[in-house]
UniProtKB/TrEMBL annotation:
Domain of life from the UniProt record: Bacteria
Subunit structure: The complex is probably composed of two ATP-binding proteins, two transmembrane proteins and a solute-binding protein.
Name of this chain's protein: Quaternary amine transport ATP-binding protein
Catalytic activity reported: a quaternary ammonium(out) + ATP + H2O = a quaternary ammonium(in) + ADP + phosphate + H(+)
Family of the protein in this entry: Belongs to the ABC transporter superfamily.
Keywords linked to the UniProt accession: ATP-binding, CBS domain, Cell inner membrane, Cell membrane, Membrane, Nucleotide-binding, Transport
Length: 227
């Protein structure tokens, strides 16, 4: 389980990006986080994986506060997927996927096996493992990004507008693929989007954020957006 307890983040320029946010994500649940640009969604995800440090509050993963986790173990425990994908351009698809395993010191053979397993899991032919990111379509790059996020078998996946840069058809296809994978994998997921339809479709629960605060949370069927 992932639990945020009164989390705040103030950047050095005094911007209060996240303001006293408390949130629980149950095991195997997808929470979609929506809200206007600049409301603090990305910052909230980056606080959870410690790409940025919180100003106050506590974040618990499996009951242990994130500051008490070993940083490499925390990186393994949390898969992170972003819109720009962020694949390393000078590394092959295989090397990108096994990046987290490499920093964990996993053996070469195991890395190769895991990369092959993951590329199939995300619906791509193993021949893609030898390609470079520049040789992939947007949808393929996003699949590889997802495979990379799964490499360390994390329990938590943080997704920051993962399909935001894709055309509509690819986007709908990847949404369906992600939902069917989730049926199998049952990860604990926070999925950021500013597309309300995507939020309704992907989320077991929807959380609305504004000015750094959580202002509404509920099941898609109970959720209303004020015009
Ligand atoms: P969202 O993901 O919802 O668009 P962000 O978390 O990116 O929102 O940003 C929240 C607020 O924090 C915005 O006002 C943004 O300008 C500010 N902000 C984001 N990153 C930084 C940073 N590194 N330094 C200072 N302010 C930042
Ligand atoms: P370094 O500490 O080596 O500079 P970074 O923190 O810049 O590494 O992250 C390297 C890459 O790994 C980036 O593309 C980043 O998006 C990705 N990354 C960071 N945190 C995670 C995570 N928890 N899970 C998966 N990928 C991550």
């Amino acid at each position: 389980m992932l639990r945020l307890d009164s989390i705040s983040k103030q950047y050095p320029n005094n911007v209060q990006a996240v303001d006293n946010v408390s949130l629980e994500v149950a095991d195997g649940e997808i929470i979609t986080l929506i809200g206007p640009s600049g409301c603090g969604k990305t910052t909230l995800l980056r606080l959870i994986n410690r790409l940025t440090e919180k100003t106050s509050g506590q974040i618990f993963i499996e009951g242990k506060e994130i500051n008490r986790w070993n940083p490499i173990e925390l990186r393994r425990q949390i898969g992170y997927v972003i819109q720009q994908v962020g694949l390393f351009p000078h590394l092959t698809v295989e090397q990108n996927i096994s990046y987290v395993l490499r920093i964990m010191g996993t053996g070469k053979k195991k890395q190769r096996e895991r990369a092959a397993e993951l590329i199939s899991l995300v619906g791509m032919d193993p021949s893609y493992l030898r390609r470079y990111p520049a040789q992939l379509s947007g949808g393929q790059a996003q699949r590889v990004g997802f495979a990379r996020a799964l490499a360390g078998n994390p329990s938590i996946i943080l997704m920051d507008e993962p399909f935001g840069a894709l055309d509509q058809i690819t986007r709908l296809q990847l949404q369906d693929e992600l939902l069917s994978l989730q049926n199998e994998l049952k990860k604990t997921v926070i999925f950021v989007t500013h597309d309300i339809q995507e939020a309704m479709k992907m989320g077991d629960k929807i959380v609305l954020m504004r000015h750094g605060q959580l202002i509404q949370a509920g099941k898609p069927a109970d959720f209303f957006i004020r015009p």
